Amino acid sequence: MKILISDAFDVTLPDKLAPFGEVTDDTSRMAEVDVILVRSKTKCTREYIDAAKNVKLIVRGGVGLDNIDVDYARSKGIQVFNTASASSIAVAELAFALMIAVPTRLVEAHMGMTEGRFLKKELKRTELCGKTLGLVGAGNIGTELARRAVAFGMKVVGYDPLLKSHDFVNLVGLEEVLRTSDYISLHVPLTDETRGMVNAETIATMKDGVVLVNTARGKCVVEADLVAALTSGKVRAYATDVWFSDPPDPSCPLLKAPNVIMSPHIGASSKENMLRIGDVVVRILEDFIRSTV
Predict the structure, then answer these.
(1) Mean pLDDT across the chain, nearest whole number?
(2) Within a 10 A sphere around the Cβ of 58, how many other Cβ atoms?
(3) Side-chain-side CA neighbours of residue 60 (13 Å)
(4) Which long-range contacts (CB under 8 A, 24 or more apart) does 99-106 make?
(5) Are 178 and 184 in contact (CB under 8 A)?
(6) pLDDT digits (tens, 9 = 90+) for 172-183
(7) How far apart are CA 184 and CA 211, in angstroms?
(8) What percent of the chain clears pLDDT 70, i.e. is strictly above it?
(9) CA distances for 260 relative to 102, 129, 151, 205, 224, angstroms
(10) CA-to-CA distance for 69 and 65, rounded, in angstroms?
(11) C-beta separation of 262 from 254 below 8 A
(12) Which of 19, 38, 144, 209 is 20 to 30 Å apart from 186, CA to CA?
């Protein structure tokens, strides 16, 4: 078996994969390999898949599969998997950090100190305790965020059409999540249904002063509509780790919008998570080999 590591993974991964066969990061050998491992950078388009003439398995080290033409791959007999469970803690911790940075005024406090401004009287904080967190998507990452929110005394409601019950989340309709939540966090894949789901119409149904957190996909929001809501104060703050592209285009209006806290798509980049991703990749390969014997 020949395995291509097409994107950046933990440095220990090649040794973990060595028992399965030859491991390479030379993308010029695509036509030779049986397995391709990608993260976000590699786009597995039809053309890419056609160039990988012998590939039988594509594994995405991460949660979403929107950088892979899954239907086309499967039509060619190629199995496609991700490592969704591995990234849950890392992404949930970042989502919570982004969320808590808003009421603590943490970014403003830090920048004030670096600029020689001691803003003790100017910065008035609020608390997460007693507020309602609304999850749009209550799967692996949403569950881990809910655990942390409950520990901080928050009420958690959520919308997830794939779930009938949840240990930490009161499942309700999407309209109720949008209408009742003080904080809304997105945890959905990018699909036809979720693309642009945060727009002028849905924002209008939210509480005045709502805080939006996005560690899902940048294209789940309509940027112009969100900027307008941030400017008017309808949305108190937008905290995001995800963008229309990596990196965002310099013309992205959110980069200069008021009350935006941003990070460069680092949700899954913890050292611990990269090790977990490697372990899940190994298990996927073990299962793949057993299924083909």
Answers:
(1) 96
(2) 27
(3) 23
(4) 99/128, 99/133, 99/183, 99/185, 99/211, 99/213, 99/239, 100/128, 100/152, 101/239, 101/261, 102/211, 102/236, 102/237, 102/239, 102/261, 103/127, 103/128, 103/211
(5) yes
(6) 999 999 999 999
(7) 6
(8) 100
(9) 9, 22, 25, 20, 14
(10) 8
(11) yes
(12) 38
Quote the pLDDT of residue 168.
Answer: 87
Q: Write the pLDDT tens digit of every residue in 39-50.
A: 989 999 999 999
Residue 78 has pLDDT above 90, yes or no: yes
Note the pLDDT of residue 293: 66
Q: What is the mean pLDDT of residues 252-266?
A: 97
Question: Which residue's entry shows tokens 């409950």?
Answer: 150
Q: Which two tokens stand for residue 119?
A: 């803003």
Structure confidence at residue 288 (pLDDT): 94
Contacts of 150-153 spanning 24+ positions with Cβ under 8 A: 152/100, 152/128, 153/128, 153/129
Q: Which tokens is 214 given?
A: 């996005």
106-115: list long-range contacts, CB under 8 Å, 24+ apart: 107/261
Helices of type H across the chain:
13-17, 46-51, 70-75, 88-104, 106-114, 140-151, 174-180, 200-204, 223-232, 271-292
pTM (2 decimals)? Answer: 0.90
What's the rounded mean pLDDT across residues 115-138?
Answer: 97
Contact (CB, 8 A) for 71 and 64:
no
Q: Is 4 helix (H, G, I), strand (E, B) or coil?
A: strand
